[in-house]
Amino acid sequence: MRWFRFAGLILFVTIIQASILAGLNSGPDMLLILLVFFCIYCDPNEAIITSFAIGFAADLIGSSMPMGPQTISFGLLGTALAYLHRVINVRNMPSQALAIFTVALLVGALSHFLALFKGMPFTPKTWGIVLGIAVYSGLVGPFLFLPSAWWMRIRTNRFAR
């Protein structure tokens, strides 16, 4: 793993997520897409470290949630996906989109559930936002895997026979 490239990529995506995509109420979650990318294409130990780091970055820019629930939910679900990747092949675009959609739903549900313990009020509109983020992230995510792999110098073997 090239950790300096990882730090640069996370910093860039965090800035994009906090500035440009913050205006979209249910836009794609770029950090979540990177979580699934690293869990699919990295060693499980590296995927666990990147999951917690990406969750921490998501907590830093999450203005509506208290600090901590996204770090925990990204870390737990990233760890589960890293170990589940040994059993399930997630190398084609439809299965990547499904993985992003599923992880987005689970991360959203778990982070909002954990935020309830910290006193955040629950609104009925929350589930619509979580579903919108999951749908948009699932549609956009697989198209961002190839540029991310190029930047991180990870061979995806997408076009190999």
In brief, what are we looking at here?
The protein is an all-alpha fold and 161 residues long.
Q: Strand share of the residues?
A: under 5%
Q: Give the number of helices.
A: 6
Average predicted confidence as pLDDT: 88
Cα shape: globular
Radius of gyration: 15 Å
- Please trace the helix and strand order, writing H or E for each element: HHHHHH
The figure for the number of domains is 1
Cα distance spanning the termini: 25 Å
Q: Which structural category fits the helices and strands?
A: mainly alpha
Any chance you could write out the topology, listing elements then pairs?
Elements: H1 3-19, H2 30-41, H3 44-61, H4 69-84, H5 93-117, H6 126-152
Helix pairs in contact: 1-3, 2-3, 2-4, 2-6, 3-4, 4-5, 5-6
Properties at a glance:
single chain, 161 residues, globular
How would you describe this protein?
This protein starts with a helix and ends in a 9-residue tail after the last helix. The protein is an all-alpha fold. The chain has one domain (3-152). α2 (30-41) packs across α6 (126-152). The chain is built from six helices and no strands.
